[in-house]
Write a structure and sequence with these properties.
- The protein has one helix at about 10; strands spanning about 10-20, 30-35, 35-50, 55-65, 70-75, 85-90, 95-105, 110-120.
- With about 120 residues, it is mainly β.
- The chain has a 4-stranded antiparallel sheet with strand order 1-8-3-6. Strands 2-7-4-5 form a 4-stranded antiparallel sheet, with no helix packed on it.
- Strand 4 (about 55-65) and strand 5 form a beta hairpin.
- It is globular.
């Protein structure tokens, strides 16, 4: 895959792993089906508002059947507002999802997560 993409919308599938939300606890997104994509993946976690105190940790999980999940990649822990992290990884299963954990208190935050991968070319 080239490092230059002249038509991002046609070349890369970008899906919402977690639409913008304000969860009051750890949250798990829906399964994202990447059957039409291939190659390296990326994910972007964007946190807006965030109360000091708790620590938020997001991760990407994979599954062959959308029911049994294993951790694939983890975002850096978030402890402050206005934080965006991007991770890159290779998947070995068809489905991905976002999952999170929180420690040190009840979070008051807003966040969204995107997953992307190059579309298959036939």
């Amino acid at each position: 895959m080239a490092t230059h993409i002249s038509d991002l919308a046609a070349a890369v599938g970008v899906l919402a792993a977690l639409p913008p939300v304000s969860p009051g606890a750890a949250v798990t997104g829906d399964a994202v089906d990447l059957i039409g994509s291939d190659g390296e993946c990326f994910a972007v976690q964007t946190v807006g508002a965030f109360d000091t105190g708790p620590t938020w940790t997001g991760r990407i999980e994979q599954s062959a059947d959308a029911s049994s999940w294993s951790t694939l990649a983890t975002f850096p822990a978030v402890t402050a507002a206005n934080s965006t992290q991007t991770i890159r990884f290779a998947r070995t299963a068809r489905y991905l999802r976002y999952n999170s954990a929180v420690s040190g208190g009840t979070p008051d935050l807003t966040l969204a997560v995107l997953i992307g991968q190059a579309r298959k070319t036939f």
